[in-house]
Amino acid sequence: MAQPMLDLHQQFQLKNLTLKPFSKLNNTEIELVWKMRNHPDIAKWMGSGGQIPLEAHQAFMARQSMENSNFNYLTHDQHGVSGVISLHRCDWRNCIAWLGIYRNPFRQETGLGSQLLNAICWLAFDIANLHTLKLEVVADNTPAIKAYLRAGFVNEGCWREAARRDDNYIDLLLMGITEQEWRKNERQ
Fold it and tell me: Given CB 3.0 to 4.6 Å as the disulfide criterion, which of 64, 69, 101, 166 pairs with 22?
């Protein structure tokens, strides 16, 4: 059973990866998250559809310590900031959350996405004691879809033409993984 009283506004350590909650970031880290989020390689996949003004980002960050169903983390490994992971829409009764994830676009090495996916599943299943982790991904984001499938996520359906990009509408794929599926995939 998930633990709604669990303090997810704390820093966590997973092997060589540090998960620092947005509620604990300093101003330099807040600005770095904003720069990563607004980078063209990241912004194009976001539902907001583009650039976020710094003031709006700072206001979002200021609300983080009051969140009890959305938890965001800046992740660091031995080489620096690796990306952002999030548990959104945490439903403590049904033990479900939705993931958010993006890698640091200023780092070019491979494997960051897998590292982040492992971290969010660990946070969801070992720390938050959730049963299921869900996600939605734009149907033309092939690299992300392949990474989710490799991590053990299963295609659960489609929201047809649910995301707007310019004058086009694109399907959103729905994917999910249960704790049992993750543990099985983790052992392989």
Answer: 64
